[in-house]
Model the fold of this input.
Amino acid sequence: MSIEVFDLEGLKNGARGYSSAVSDGNYLYFIPLNNDSFFGEVVRFDLKKDFCDPQSWSFFDTETLDRRSGGYIGALFDGRFLYLIPHCNRDFHGVVSRYDTTNAFTDPSSWDFQDTQQFDGGSRGFVSGAFDGKHLYFAPYRTALDDYSGLVTRYDVAGGFSEPGSWEFFDVSELGSSLRGFHGAIFHKGSIIFVPYAREDRAFHGNLVQYQTSGLFADPDSWSFIDLEGINPRARGFVGGTSLGDSIYLAPYFDGRDRSGLVAIGHASPGSDIANSDWHFVDAEVFHPQSRGFFGAIAVGEAVYFIPHCLDGEVYHGLLTKMDTEIDSISSRAWSFRDIREVDRLTGGFMGGVFAEGWIYLAPFENSPGSRHGRVARVQPW
Done:
Protein backbone atom coordinates (compact mmCIF):
# COMPACT_ATOMS: atom_id res chain seq x y z
CA MET A 1 0.00 0.00 0.00
CA SER A 2 1.29 3.46 -0.95
CA ILE A 3 1.38 6.56 1.21
CA GLU A 4 2.76 9.77 -0.27
CA VAL A 5 3.29 13.19 1.29
CA PHE A 6 3.81 16.55 -0.38
CA ASP A 7 4.56 19.71 1.60
CA LEU A 8 2.83 22.75 0.08
CA GLU A 9 5.01 25.09 2.11
CA GLY A 10 7.89 24.01 -0.09
CA LEU A 11 6.03 25.82 -2.89
CA LYS A 12 4.74 28.86 -1.05
CA ASN A 13 5.19 30.36 2.38
CA GLY A 14 1.96 30.25 4.37
CA ALA A 15 0.46 27.34 2.40
CA ARG A 16 -0.82 25.53 5.49
CA GLY A 17 -3.92 25.18 7.63
CA TYR A 18 -6.64 23.77 5.32
CA SER A 19 -10.11 22.63 6.35
CA SER A 20 -11.05 20.20 3.59
CA ALA A 21 -10.46 18.93 0.06
CA VAL A 22 -12.99 18.82 -2.79
CA SER A 23 -12.79 17.41 -6.33
CA ASP A 24 -14.49 18.62 -9.51
CA GLY A 25 -13.35 15.52 -11.39
CA ASN A 26 -10.30 17.17 -12.95
CA TYR A 27 -8.76 19.04 -10.04
CA LEU A 28 -8.59 18.93 -6.26
CA TYR A 29 -9.12 22.09 -4.24
CA PHE A 30 -7.73 22.49 -0.73
CA ILE A 31 -9.89 24.92 1.22
CA PRO A 32 -8.12 27.56 3.34
CA LEU A 33 -9.08 28.11 6.96
CA ASN A 34 -6.28 29.36 9.21
CA ASN A 35 -2.52 29.45 8.64
CA ASP A 36 -1.90 31.32 11.94
CA SER A 37 -4.56 33.79 10.88
CA PHE A 38 -7.69 33.31 8.81
CA PHE A 39 -6.85 33.34 5.10
CA GLY A 40 -8.33 32.76 1.65
CA GLU A 41 -5.66 31.27 -0.60
CA VAL A 42 -7.14 28.20 -2.31
CA VAL A 43 -4.75 25.52 -3.57
CA ARG A 44 -5.53 23.52 -6.70
CA PHE A 45 -3.96 20.20 -7.75
CA ASP A 46 -4.20 18.83 -11.29
CA LEU A 47 -5.26 15.19 -10.97
CA LYS A 48 -3.72 14.37 -14.35
CA LYS A 49 -0.24 15.41 -13.20
CA ASP A 50 2.39 14.10 -10.84
CA PHE A 51 1.66 14.58 -7.16
CA CYS A 52 5.16 15.76 -6.28
CA ASP A 53 5.68 18.02 -9.31
CA PRO A 54 5.47 21.71 -8.30
CA GLN A 55 3.90 22.43 -11.71
CA SER A 56 0.87 20.34 -10.68
CA TRP A 57 -0.12 22.93 -8.10
CA SER A 58 -1.56 26.47 -8.35
CA PHE A 59 -2.88 29.10 -5.96
CA PHE A 60 -5.54 31.79 -5.87
CA ASP A 61 -6.31 34.15 -2.99
CA THR A 62 -9.97 35.15 -2.76
CA GLU A 63 -9.09 37.99 -0.39
CA THR A 64 -7.48 39.87 -3.27
CA LEU A 65 -11.02 40.26 -4.66
CA ASP A 66 -13.07 40.51 -1.46
CA ARG A 67 -11.39 41.22 1.87
CA ARG A 68 -14.36 39.76 3.72
CA SER A 69 -13.76 36.30 2.24
CA GLY A 70 -11.43 33.64 3.65
CA GLY A 71 -11.64 31.42 6.70
CA TYR A 72 -13.69 28.68 5.05
CA ILE A 73 -14.67 25.25 6.38
CA GLY A 74 -15.66 23.02 3.51
CA ALA A 75 -16.76 23.48 -0.08
CA LEU A 76 -19.43 22.06 -2.40
CA PHE A 77 -19.37 21.38 -6.14
CA ASP A 78 -22.61 21.48 -8.18
CA GLY A 79 -21.23 20.21 -11.50
CA ARG A 80 -19.99 23.61 -12.65
CA PHE A 81 -19.42 25.91 -9.69
CA LEU A 82 -17.30 25.39 -6.60
CA TYR A 83 -18.73 27.09 -3.50
CA LEU A 84 -16.47 27.84 -0.53
CA ILE A 85 -18.41 27.74 2.73
CA PRO A 86 -17.78 30.70 5.06
CA HIS A 87 -16.84 30.21 8.68
CA CYS A 88 -14.74 32.98 10.23
CA ASN A 89 -12.42 35.72 9.04
CA ARG A 90 -11.79 37.86 12.12
CA ASP A 91 -15.56 37.59 12.71
CA PHE A 92 -17.96 34.77 11.88
CA HIS A 93 -19.25 35.64 8.42
CA GLY A 94 -21.48 34.58 5.55
CA VAL A 95 -19.45 35.51 2.46
CA VAL A 96 -19.79 32.56 0.07
CA SER A 97 -17.08 32.48 -2.60
CA ARG A 98 -18.02 30.88 -5.91
CA TYR A 99 -15.61 29.75 -8.63
CA ASP A 100 -16.75 28.91 -12.18
CA THR A 101 -14.67 25.81 -12.96
CA THR A 102 -15.20 26.25 -16.73
CA ASN A 103 -12.98 29.35 -16.57
CA ALA A 104 -9.37 29.95 -15.60
CA PHE A 105 -8.64 29.40 -11.91
CA THR A 106 -6.56 32.55 -11.48
CA ASP A 107 -8.78 34.84 -13.56
CA PRO A 108 -10.60 37.26 -11.21
CA SER A 109 -13.66 37.18 -13.48
CA SER A 110 -14.07 33.47 -12.64
CA TRP A 111 -14.99 34.35 -9.05
CA ASP A 112 -18.16 35.76 -7.45
CA PHE A 113 -19.07 36.54 -3.85
CA GLN A 114 -22.35 36.69 -1.97
CA ASP A 115 -22.84 37.61 1.66
CA THR A 116 -25.80 35.58 2.93
CA GLN A 117 -26.18 38.03 5.83
CA GLN A 118 -27.66 40.47 3.31
CA PHE A 119 -30.70 38.19 3.23
CA ASP A 120 -30.70 37.07 6.87
CA GLY A 121 -28.44 38.59 9.51
CA GLY A 122 -28.01 35.28 11.33
CA SER A 123 -26.74 33.43 8.26
CA ARG A 124 -23.05 33.04 9.06
CA GLY A 125 -20.45 30.89 10.80
CA PHE A 126 -21.07 27.62 8.96
CA VAL A 127 -19.18 24.35 9.07
CA SER A 128 -19.37 22.50 5.75
CA GLY A 129 -22.63 21.44 4.11
CA ALA A 130 -24.28 19.14 1.57
CA PHE A 131 -25.66 19.16 -1.98
CA ASP A 132 -28.81 17.25 -3.00
CA GLY A 133 -28.53 17.84 -6.76
CA LYS A 134 -30.67 20.99 -6.68
CA HIS A 135 -29.81 22.87 -3.51
CA LEU A 136 -26.79 23.60 -1.36
CA TYR A 137 -27.26 23.36 2.40
CA PHE A 138 -24.88 25.16 4.76
CA ALA A 139 -24.64 23.58 8.22
CA PRO A 140 -25.07 26.14 11.02
CA TYR A 141 -22.42 26.13 13.72
CA ARG A 142 -22.00 29.43 15.57
CA THR A 143 -22.31 33.19 15.12
CA ALA A 144 -20.04 34.23 18.01
CA LEU A 145 -17.52 32.49 20.26
CA ASP A 146 -20.24 31.21 22.59
CA ASP A 147 -23.38 31.74 20.53
CA TYR A 148 -24.35 28.64 18.56
CA SER A 149 -26.76 28.59 15.66
CA GLY A 150 -29.51 26.42 14.21
CA LEU A 151 -30.20 28.59 11.16
CA VAL A 152 -29.86 26.39 8.07
CA THR A 153 -29.12 28.31 4.86
CA ARG A 154 -30.19 26.84 1.50
CA TYR A 155 -29.29 27.98 -2.02
CA ASP A 156 -31.04 26.98 -5.26
CA VAL A 157 -28.22 26.43 -7.76
CA ALA A 158 -30.59 27.13 -10.67
CA GLY A 159 -31.22 30.64 -9.35
CA GLY A 160 -29.16 33.79 -9.55
CA PHE A 161 -26.30 33.85 -7.06
CA SER A 162 -27.12 37.39 -5.95
CA GLU A 163 -30.92 37.03 -6.16
CA PRO A 164 -32.69 37.05 -2.77
CA GLY A 165 -35.21 34.52 -4.06
CA SER A 166 -32.46 31.93 -4.54
CA TRP A 167 -31.77 31.82 -0.82
CA GLU A 168 -33.92 30.30 1.94
CA PHE A 169 -33.51 29.99 5.69
CA PHE A 170 -34.95 27.75 8.36
CA ASP A 171 -34.05 27.84 12.05
CA VAL A 172 -34.20 24.29 13.40
CA SER A 173 -33.80 25.61 16.96
CA GLU A 174 -37.45 26.66 16.66
CA LEU A 175 -38.25 22.93 16.69
CA GLY A 176 -36.20 22.45 19.87
CA SER A 177 -33.91 24.86 21.69
CA SER A 178 -31.11 22.27 21.89
CA LEU A 179 -30.92 21.93 18.08
CA ARG A 180 -27.87 24.11 17.49
CA GLY A 181 -24.18 23.72 16.74
CA PHE A 182 -23.71 21.26 13.86
CA HIS A 183 -20.39 20.14 12.39
CA GLY A 184 -21.24 19.27 8.82
CA ALA A 185 -24.07 17.78 6.81
CA ILE A 186 -24.58 14.57 4.80
CA PHE A 187 -26.83 13.94 1.78
CA HIS A 188 -28.41 10.55 2.35
CA LYS A 189 -31.23 8.88 0.40
CA GLY A 190 -33.34 11.98 -0.26
CA SER A 191 -32.57 13.71 3.02
CA ILE A 192 -30.01 16.06 4.54
CA ILE A 193 -28.52 14.98 7.86
CA PHE A 194 -27.02 17.66 10.11
CA VAL A 195 -24.24 16.26 12.27
CA PRO A 196 -24.42 17.01 16.03
CA TYR A 197 -21.43 18.63 17.68
CA ALA A 198 -21.61 21.31 20.43
CA ARG A 199 -23.53 24.19 21.99
CA GLU A 200 -22.63 26.95 24.44
CA ASP A 201 -20.16 26.24 27.28
CA ARG A 202 -18.68 23.32 25.33
CA ALA A 203 -21.83 21.27 25.79
CA PHE A 204 -21.14 18.52 23.28
CA HIS A 205 -24.38 16.93 22.15
CA GLY A 206 -25.96 14.21 20.05
CA ASN A 207 -28.95 16.06 18.59
CA LEU A 208 -29.06 14.97 14.96
CA VAL A 209 -31.44 16.76 12.58
CA GLN A 210 -32.90 15.47 9.29
CA TYR A 211 -34.59 17.36 6.47
CA GLN A 212 -36.61 15.36 3.91
CA THR A 213 -35.89 17.07 0.58
CA SER A 214 -39.27 16.00 -0.83
CA GLY A 215 -40.96 18.35 1.65
CA LEU A 216 -41.18 22.13 1.76
CA PHE A 217 -38.08 23.68 3.27
CA ALA A 218 -40.01 26.02 5.57
CA ASP A 219 -42.51 23.37 6.70
CA PRO A 220 -41.67 21.99 10.18
CA ASP A 221 -43.21 18.68 9.11
CA SER A 222 -40.30 18.23 6.66
CA TRP A 223 -37.90 18.09 9.61
CA SER A 224 -37.22 15.52 12.31
CA PHE A 225 -34.58 14.98 14.94
CA ILE A 226 -33.23 12.49 17.44
CA ASP A 227 -30.96 12.75 20.47
CA LEU A 228 -28.42 9.97 20.00
CA GLU A 229 -27.40 10.29 23.65
CA GLY A 230 -30.76 8.75 24.50
CA ILE A 231 -29.51 5.57 22.82
CA ASN A 232 -25.86 5.74 23.91
CA PRO A 233 -24.74 8.30 26.54
CA ARG A 234 -21.37 8.76 24.77
CA ALA A 235 -22.96 9.50 21.38
CA ARG A 236 -22.11 13.19 21.05
CA GLY A 237 -19.54 15.53 19.57
CA PHE A 238 -19.31 14.15 16.02
CA VAL A 239 -17.43 15.83 13.16
CA GLY A 240 -18.83 15.02 9.73
CA GLY A 241 -19.50 11.60 8.33
CA THR A 242 -20.57 9.88 5.15
CA SER A 243 -23.39 7.96 3.45
CA LEU A 244 -22.95 4.44 2.11
CA GLY A 245 -25.82 2.26 0.93
CA ASP A 246 -28.73 2.56 3.34
CA SER A 247 -26.52 3.71 6.20
CA ILE A 248 -24.92 6.87 7.49
CA TYR A 249 -21.69 6.84 9.48
CA LEU A 250 -20.86 9.67 11.89
CA ALA A 251 -17.20 10.36 12.62
CA PRO A 252 -16.49 10.55 16.38
CA TYR A 253 -14.41 13.41 17.70
CA PHE A 254 -15.11 14.45 21.31
CA ASP A 255 -17.56 12.94 23.78
CA GLY A 256 -17.33 15.73 26.36
CA ARG A 257 -14.51 14.09 28.32
CA ASP A 258 -11.98 12.87 25.78
CA ARG A 259 -11.41 12.28 22.08
CA SER A 260 -13.79 9.54 21.05
CA GLY A 261 -13.74 6.52 18.79
CA LEU A 262 -17.47 5.80 19.08
CA VAL A 263 -18.78 5.53 15.52
CA ALA A 264 -22.54 6.03 15.15
CA ILE A 265 -24.18 3.97 12.39
CA GLY A 266 -27.76 4.66 11.35
CA HIS A 267 -29.68 2.44 8.93
CA ALA A 268 -32.44 4.28 7.11
CA SER A 269 -34.29 3.44 3.91
CA PRO A 270 -35.22 6.27 1.50
CA GLY A 271 -37.88 8.58 2.89
CA SER A 272 -37.76 7.14 6.40
CA ASP A 273 -37.70 9.28 9.51
CA ILE A 274 -34.27 9.29 11.16
CA ALA A 275 -35.89 9.17 14.59
CA ASN A 276 -37.33 5.75 13.73
CA SER A 277 -34.16 4.38 12.17
CA ASP A 278 -32.03 1.55 13.51
CA TRP A 279 -28.97 2.95 15.29
CA HIS A 280 -25.98 1.10 16.67
CA PHE A 281 -22.53 2.10 17.84
CA VAL A 282 -19.06 0.61 17.74
CA ASP A 283 -15.95 1.93 19.45
CA ALA A 284 -12.98 1.86 17.05
CA GLU A 285 -10.65 2.39 20.01
CA VAL A 286 -11.35 -1.21 21.05
CA PHE A 287 -9.45 -2.33 17.95
CA HIS A 288 -6.60 0.22 18.13
CA PRO A 289 -5.82 2.59 21.05
CA GLN A 290 -5.22 5.53 18.71
CA SER A 291 -8.34 5.03 16.59
CA ARG A 292 -10.21 8.10 17.85
CA GLY A 293 -10.45 11.86 17.41
CA PHE A 294 -11.51 11.98 13.76
CA PHE A 295 -12.41 14.90 11.46
CA GLY A 296 -14.76 13.39 8.90
CA ALA A 297 -15.15 10.16 6.98
CA ILE A 298 -14.92 9.05 3.34
CA ALA A 299 -16.76 6.18 1.65
CA VAL A 300 -14.69 4.19 -0.85
CA GLY A 301 -16.28 1.10 -2.34
CA GLU A 302 -17.78 -0.85 0.57
CA ALA A 303 -15.48 0.71 3.17
CA VAL A 304 -15.54 3.83 5.32
CA TYR A 305 -12.28 5.61 6.15
CA PHE A 306 -12.09 7.88 9.20
CA ILE A 307 -9.80 10.91 8.94
CA PRO A 308 -7.25 11.28 11.76
CA HIS A 309 -6.99 14.54 13.67
CA CYS A 310 -5.94 14.35 17.34
CA LEU A 311 -5.85 12.07 20.38
CA ASP A 312 -6.22 14.79 23.01
CA GLY A 313 -5.58 18.53 23.29
CA GLU A 314 -1.83 18.04 22.85
CA VAL A 315 -1.15 14.93 20.78
CA TYR A 316 -2.15 14.81 17.12
CA HIS A 317 -2.07 11.68 14.99
CA GLY A 318 -2.12 10.24 11.50
CA LEU A 319 -3.83 6.88 11.98
CA LEU A 320 -6.20 6.40 9.05
CA THR A 321 -8.88 3.94 10.15
CA LYS A 322 -10.80 1.69 7.78
CA MET A 323 -14.08 -0.06 8.52
CA ASP A 324 -15.16 -2.75 6.05
CA THR A 325 -18.97 -2.47 5.99
CA GLU A 326 -19.39 -5.96 4.52
CA ILE A 327 -18.13 -7.46 7.80
CA ASP A 328 -19.94 -7.17 11.14
CA SER A 329 -18.66 -3.94 12.69
CA ILE A 330 -18.08 -5.57 16.09
CA SER A 331 -15.61 -8.01 14.53
CA SER A 332 -11.93 -7.10 14.56
CA ARG A 333 -11.79 -8.35 10.96
CA ALA A 334 -13.81 -5.29 9.91
CA TRP A 335 -11.11 -2.89 11.09
CA SER A 336 -7.66 -2.05 9.75
CA PHE A 337 -5.27 0.87 10.09
CA ARG A 338 -2.46 2.74 8.34
CA ASP A 339 -0.30 5.23 10.22
CA ILE A 340 0.80 8.05 7.92
CA ARG A 341 3.34 9.17 10.51
CA GLU A 342 5.38 6.08 9.75
CA VAL A 343 6.12 7.78 6.41
CA ASP A 344 6.44 11.34 7.76
CA ARG A 345 6.38 11.89 11.52
CA LEU A 346 5.12 15.48 11.10
CA THR A 347 2.14 14.53 8.92
CA GLY A 348 -1.15 14.27 10.81
CA GLY A 349 -3.88 16.46 12.23
CA PHE A 350 -5.99 16.46 9.06
CA MET A 351 -9.33 18.22 8.51
CA GLY A 352 -11.35 16.49 5.85
CA GLY A 353 -10.43 14.71 2.69
CA VAL A 354 -11.68 13.28 -0.58
CA PHE A 355 -11.33 10.18 -2.77
CA ALA A 356 -10.23 10.91 -6.34
CA GLU A 357 -8.50 8.95 -9.11
CA GLY A 358 -7.69 5.97 -6.91
CA TRP A 359 -6.30 7.89 -3.93
CA ILE A 360 -7.59 9.24 -0.63
CA TYR A 361 -6.33 12.82 -0.24
CA LEU A 362 -6.17 14.34 3.25
CA ALA A 363 -6.21 18.09 3.90
CA PRO A 364 -3.45 19.26 6.28
CA PHE A 365 -4.36 21.49 9.19
CA GLU A 366 -2.05 21.19 12.23
CA ASN A 367 0.29 18.62 13.75
CA SER A 368 0.36 20.09 17.27
CA PRO A 369 -1.76 22.76 18.99
CA GLY A 370 -1.53 25.93 16.91
CA SER A 371 1.23 24.48 14.69
CA ARG A 372 -0.31 24.59 11.21
CA HIS A 373 1.25 22.61 8.40
CA GLY A 374 0.89 22.05 4.67
CA ARG A 375 1.77 18.36 4.30
CA VAL A 376 -0.87 16.89 2.01
CA ALA A 377 -1.06 13.12 2.37
CA ARG A 378 -2.51 10.72 -0.12
CA VAL A 379 -3.14 7.04 0.55
CA GLN A 380 -4.17 4.23 -1.75
CA PRO A 381 -7.23 2.44 -0.34
CA TRP A 382 -6.51 -1.06 0.87
